[in-house]
Design a protein that fits this description.
single chain; alpha+beta; two-stranded antiparallel ribbon
C-alpha cells in the first residue's frame, strides 16, 4: 500500500505538470481542491522533497542532474534512484514495488538493472511503478535497506563491485 505522503507527492507532480502554479498558496489550494488536507509548511516540504523549482514564475520539476566530471556510472545511477523513487513497499516475500513520478519508472528499472544488485533477480517497469523481483525475504530486506539509505541522502550506500 502506498503511503499517504507518496500519494500526495504523486498528486503534486501531476498538478505541477498540468497547471501553472505560481505560489505555494496556489499549490496548497490545488491540493485542497483535490481533497488533501495540507498546511503551508507541508507544501513547502513537499516542494523541497520533489526538488521543484520555478521557471518563468511557475513551479516545475527540476531538470535531472547531469553527471559531474569524475563521477562514475555507479554514482550517476544511484543518483537516478535517489531522485526518482518516491515510495517503496514489500509485496510478498520476493517482490518490491517502487513508485516514481510519472514517466520515470523505466529509468529507475534500468538503473537497478545496470547496478546489478546481487539481491535483484529482475525488474519490470511501467509508467510510474517498478516491480523488483528479489531472491527471497532476506534479499528483500537487504534491498529495502539499500533504498532507505539512498532516500536518506547517504553519499555512497551502494556496495562496491
Amino acid at each position: 500500500m502506498k503511503s499517504r505522503r507518496a500519494l500526495r507527492l504523486r498528486k503534486l507532480l501531476e498538478l505541477v505538470s498540468s497547471r501553472e502554479l505560481h505560489t505555494q498558496d496556489e499549490v496548497k489550494d490545488a491540493l485542497v481542491a483535490e481533497g488533501w488536507q495540507v498546511t503551508q509548511s507541508s507544501v513547502s516540504r513537499d516542494i523541497a522533497a520533489l526538488r521543484l523549482s520555478k521557471e518563468r514564475g511557475i513551479y516545475v520539476r527540476s531538470a535531472r542532474r547531469t553527471p559531474l566530471p569524475g563521477q562514475g556510472q555507479g554514482q550517476v545511477l544511484s543518483a537516478v534512484l535517489s531522485e526518482s523513487i518516491l515510495d517503496s513497499a514489500p509485496a510478498g516475500d520476493a517482490l518490491i514495488v517502487l513508485h516514481t513520478p510519472p514517466g520515470e519508472a523505466s529509468r529507475v528499472g534500468a538503473a537497478i538493472d545496470r547496478l546489478a544488485f546481487s539481491e535483484v533477480v529482475g525488474t519490470i517497469a511501467g509508467d510510474d511503478t517498478v516491480f523488483v523481483a528479489v531472491q527471497g525475504s532476506a534479499a528483500q530486506k537487504r534491498f529495502l535497506a539499500i533504498l532507505a539509505k539512498l532516500g536518506d541522502g547517504d553519499e555512497d550506500p551502494l556496495p562496491t563491485p
